[in-house]
Amino acid sequence: MTRNQQAVIALIVLAAIGAVVYYWRVIVQQTPGDYEVRKGNYRLEDGRFEQAVEEFSKALEENPDHERAHLGLAIAYMQMGKLDKALAAFDRTIELAPEMAVAYADRGIVRDRMGRYEEAVADYRKALELNPDLGKGPGWLWRFLRNVSEKPPTIRDRLEYLEAELRNPPGERLLRVPEVDSKQRMYKK
């Protein structure tokens, strides 16, 4: 092999290494932890919540202020029924990103499940104030892709229901209907 051929091979190898570094830093890893957040979101969608927690936790080790990692961690905990942990993670998400409407919507769901209805109402209102489209719920394409025939209740539906029930005297309120409440979906950015 001639010296020129070796130089060309060396340049190709360097260019390939440069391309991999560029791909990782610019495309995959725009912010430290983004790659793990994407993996965590895939785990959420697959219903693999423990693995999602692992991915979001890795992202937070890399970047403790990664708002989407906190959001994903909160959603995973919510789906696992670990409501205290979910609430703490939603609080941190909102602290980092006070304009993130989905964080208020999901925190409202957690507070609702905890029986903290007035706080849930406040979160649902704030979510809808920040993003009125959250009150529309999922569209037909989302329902088609997930094989959901009926449109699940939205946070606007739940807000209106809670407000009406909270106007009733305490002994006449019906704030929990498990078969309906279980259909409420999580919100993601």
Can you offer a commentary on this structure?
By secondary structure, the protein is mainly alpha-helical. Helices cover 68% and strands 0% of the residues. The protein has helices at residues 3-28, 34-45, 49-62, 67-80, 83-96, 101-113, 117-130, 140-145, 155-166, 178-181. The mean pLDDT is 87.
SSE layout:
Layout: H1 3-28, H2 34-45, H3 49-62, H4 67-80, H5 83-96, H6 101-113, H7 117-130, H8 140-145, H9 155-166, H10 178-181
Q: How would you characterize the largest beta sheet?
A: none
What is the typical, i.e. mean, pLDDT?
A: 87
- Give the CA-CA distance, first to last residue: 55 Å
Total strands: 0
Name the assembly state: single chain
The DSSP helix count reads 10
Low-confidence stretches: none
What level of helicity do the residues show? 55-70%
**Beta-strand residue percentage:** under 5%
The run of helices and strands is HHHHHHHHHH
Shape: elongated
Q: Based on helices, strands and strand pairing, what is the structural class?
A: mainly alpha
In brief, what are we looking at here?
The protein is mostly helical and 189 residues long.
Question: What distinguishing features does this structure have?
Answer:
189 residues, mainly alpha
